[in-house]
Design a protein that fits this description.
With 255 residues, the chain is mainly alpha-helical. The protein has 9 helices and no strands. The mean pLDDT is 91.
Length: 255
Amino acid sequence: MGLVREIGATFAAFIHALGSMAIFLGRLIMYTPAGLLRFRLVVQQVHNAGALSLVIIMLSGFFVGLVLGLQGFDLLARFNSENVLGGATALALIKELGPVVTALLFAGRAGTALASEIGLMKATDQLSAMEMMAVDPMKRVVLPRFLGGVIAMPLLVAIFTAIGIFGAWVVGVALMGVDPGVFWSQMQSLVSMDDVREGIFKSIVFGVAASLVAVYEGYTAWPTAEGVGRATTRTVVITAVSVLILDYMITAALL
């Protein structure tokens, strides 16, 4: 009975957290039209979440493309189909690896920064001070950071995918001798606009999920050093699990 009670309590806590996050998202969506008018704040957060993540995104994208090119060439060579390396790597990056890996990197770099920043503002009573001055922290602090993450994610995915394709080109064409014309023509013939739209849709959904988890965990963190640290850790873990679950659900729905 003790185990059943513990499982029930865990499930109830999960449902409660999911409902709280859904209400939190509803408030953010309701405030979004007014938040977009604070153009300067949103642009600043796009810079913080996106531009400051460019180095890790580009570096990771390049090496993912290199590895994908090596593994793809080795696999396709066994079937004498090396010429489709460009299309195969482009499909993998556009539909799966680009959105998923970028979202995981975003959670590790920008998501933790958002959660710790908001959590620290709560721990040092800055959010309470805003409320005392009749300033809503949701509109002034949380919403711009949420919108910044949502806007930055598709841009980062596009950069990651482009750099990854370049990395695959370096391996396939420059190192393995695949004809460059065949590499690009196969990519053009195999990749359709539906594949591109799927990648864009995933990047937007993952951007909403990653940004929501980060700002929610920071805003609801216990106002202590331990609470902020725990919120930062939870941000990475929850975002990673959520992105993988959402990726499966979207992929299954769009097949």
